[in-house]
Design a protein that fits this description.
Layout (H helix, E strand, L loop, with lengths): L3 E2 L9 H12 L19 H15 L5 E6 L2 H13 L3 E6 L2 H11 L3 E7 L21 E4 L1 E2 L4 E2 L10 E4 L16 E5 L10 E6 L16 H6 L9 H16 L2 H22 L3 E3 L10 E6 L7 H10 L2 E2 L10 E4 L6 H17 L1
Parallel strand pairs: 1-13, 3-4, 3-5, 5-8, 8-9
Antiparallel strand pairs: 2-10, 6-7, 9-10, 11-12, 12-14
Helix pairs in contact: 1-6, 2-6, 3-4, 7-9
Length: about 350
């Protein structure tokens, strides 16, 4: 049976990327060695890092004056690395979900941390819009896509202070104006590569301005100066990321990727809105294209397990909602084919006919 991978992360990757990564595990570059056992300083591996960084810059149209680095530790480690490197007097955060809240918690250990707005009281079902960014903050932190609650911020904000964005789950899903950001970062396990890798895009001029001592491993300058090779980097995920970036470019770049993502999201949201058995949980104007969350309508709540069972029988994987929200979540990342969304929509329509 064909499987339809709606996992929220680690998540679906293009089949050809998986196959090329698997081949590199068996024999990297005709060397007779696996990529799992080569040195990260081998002459054959440096071009992989170089190409991955070059594709980052090309696909996102990153302007001069920014560095791209690859790190271990995932996005969660960045929650403390950001204030270590950028927090001097005050930081500002937009609280739109669990991960934004966790990032803000780390910053509070460094000093005055302002929550400029929050949608927590509404269970994070919308992205706050009417707020004022304090002009004396060292930076303003946002989380652009909220995987648990299914909201997404599509605007490149005009911020009076450096804008820092966690884009773990929507990077490379649409074009960006990188020049509006001081830093973009994220874990790779949604739209980029297997778990174990974090990426950081940072404006060089922001660094070196805090008065505190920064431990070497937590200092962005350390990793920039050493080309992401200060310590052994996550070799396999970097290779897979390079192959995935090649795949994105071959699809037509981010304009084509965004068009496809809009088509997938529209298809599923239209069915949620049409089908009497299901209800979307996020405010319509803030609905995520990456993580589509919905629940059974109140009068059909008792049938939730029955729909989950039917979906499982049809090959749907990973549609159970996060435990803090319940219901269902279909993650429609770049590599998910529209045929999988069509299969889920058909499943929803068939379930409706049964009842």
């Amino acid at each position: 049976m064909k499987k339809h991978n709606f996992n929220a992360g680690p998540s679906v990757l293009p089949r050809e990327v998986i196959e090329k990564t698997a081949q590199a595990v068996l024999d990297f570059n005709g060397s007779g060695l696996s990529i799992l056992e080569i040195s990260h300083r081998a002459k054959d591996f440096q071009p992989i890092v170089d190409e991955a960084i070059a594709l980052f810059k090309e696909l996102l149209e990153i302007p001069e004056g920014y560095s791209v680095i690859f790190l271990g530790g995932g996005a969660s480690l960045q929650f403390c690395m950001i204030p270590f490197n950028l927090f001097e007097k005050k930081a500002a955060y937009l609280n739109t979900g669990v991960w934004a809240s966790k990032a803000m918690k780390e910053a509070k250990a460094f000093g005055e941390t302002i929550e400029v707005a929050s949608s927590k009281d509404a269970n994070y079902t919308f992205v706050p819009k009417d707020y004022v960014i304090p002009t004396d903050a060292d930076y303003f932190h946002i989380t652009t896509n909220n995987t648990i609650y299914g909201t997404e911020l599509f605007t490149d904000i005009d911020s009076p202070v450096p804008l820092i964005a966690d884009m773990s789950s929507d990077i490379f899903s649409r074009p960006l104006d990188v020049s509006k950001y001081g830093m973009i970062y994220g874990g790779a396990q949604k739209n980029l590569a297997p778990a174990g890798l974090a990426f950081v895009i940072i404006k060089d001029e922001l660094l070196g301005k805090v008065s505190r001592h920064i431990p070497s491993m937590l200092n962005y300058k350390t990793h920039i100066d050493n080309g992401s090779m200060f310590n052994t980097p996550p070799v396999l995920p970097i290779y897979s990321a390079m192959e995935n970036l090649r795949w994105i470019k071959a699809q037509g770049g981010l304009v084509a990727i965004e068009k496809n993502n809009i088509a997938k999201a529209d298809l599923l949201y239209n069915e949620i809105d049409r089908n009497k058995m299901f209800v979307g949980t996020a405010a319509k104007e803030d609905r995520s294209r990456m993580n589509i969350c919905f629940v059974m309508a109140p009068e059909y709540q008792a049938l939730e397990a029955d729909f989950q069972k039917l979906a499982n029988e049809r090959g749907m994987v990973g549609i159970k909602g996060h435990r803090s929200v319940g219901g269902f979540r279909a993650s429609t990342y770049n590599a998910l084919p529209i045929e999988s969304v069509q299969a889920l929509v058909q499943c929803m329509q068939d379930f409706e006919k049964l009842y």
